[in-house]
Each structure stands twice: as C-alpha cells, then as structure tokens.
Amino acid sequence: MERLFALMVLAGISQLATAADVELWRLDCGEFKDFDISGMSDTFAYPIKKKTLSDGCYLIRHGKQLMLWDTGLSPSVISKDKSTGLGLSQTLPEQLRKIGIEPQQISIIGVSHGHFDHTGQAANFPKARLLMGKADFDAMTSKHSGFGFNIVFGEADPP
Predict the structure, then answer these.
(1) Which among 97, 98, 90, 93 is positioned nearest to 109, based on CA atoms?
(2) Domain 23-141 listed as CATH 3.60.15.10
C-alpha cells in the first residue's frame, strides 16, 4: 500500500512539473467602443444596445516555444480620433517587450478567424508560422473575401 501511495505522489509531482512548462498571458488587442451588439445574436436576443467590447489576444508559452493567438486590431487605429469607435492603446510588439519577449521569438501565430480585429498585427511577425483553418485562409485570400477579411501579409505597420 505504501508503494502505491508513493507512486501516486510521484506521478502527481511529475504532472505538476509538466504543468509549470506552460504559461499564458492575455494581451490587449483593442476595443470597440459603443458597438451595436443587436446583430450578434442569431436569435435576436439583444435589443438594440451599444456596449464596449474588448479584443483580446493571448500569448502561450509551451516549453521554449511561443504562440500568439490572434493579433488584434491594426496599429493604424491608434489615434486621437475617437469617431471610428475602434481603440488600441499599444501594439503587440510593445506589450511583448514589456514582458521580455521580442516579436521574432514568436514561432506560431494562431488565427481564430480572418476578421480584421483578429489579424490586424499579423505582419509584425513575419517569421512565425501561420496556423488557421483552410476555409478561413481561402476566404481571406480570395478576390471577394467579404466583410472584415482584409488581412495583409506584407510589411507590418510600424510599432
């Protein structure tokens, strides 16, 4: 019985050591001020209301590998003009540097979907491998990509 207990304790310690190899940070990737949420319910459950919605991105460290999940709004929305309703206070590279990470250390960018509020800073990570669904990639790269699919994989906006 003592051996079984000792094995269980060792297995638990081993799992704790593995769990410590993963870290997660939430990064601020912008916000939509006074956004009309009436169209965000497929059952029309929201009466016409305006809310401020946050746009989050996530940095995941697994071992030595760094993955960025979504890249938020474009730095082009950093301005004093509040009439657009879009806001971004600082770029992803600026936020990453505050936690000791350089953009070139990001090895994977995961994109949940191709809308502009999830892909706006992707070009700041040109060495990262892109991870996304084929249907989204096809939609983003087609001539007629539709609303919100306007990612540019060219030069990045300046940080």
Answers:
(1) 93
(2) yes
Pick from 9, 109, 17: which is nearest to 59 by CA? Answer: 109
- Rounded CA-CA distance 123/66 in Å is 16
CA gap 40, 43 in Å, rounded: 9
Q: Exposed, middle or buried, 64 (CB in 10 Å: 0-12/13-18/19+)?
A: exposed
Structure tokens given for 126: 């040109």
Stated pTM of the model: 0.73
Query: For residues 111 and 84, which has the higher predicted lDDT (pLDDT)?
Result: 111
Alpha carbon of 99 to those of 15, 89, 96, 132: distances in Å? 26, 17, 5, 26
Q: In which element (H, E) is residue 57 found? A: strand 50-62
User: pLDDT tens for residues 93-113?
Assistant: 999 999 999 999 999 999 998
Maximum separation of any 2 CA atoms in the chain, in Å = 70
* 21-72 residue pLDDT tens: 999 999 999 998 888 888 888 888 888 788 888 999 999 999 999 999 999 9
Domain boundary assignment for the chain = 23-141
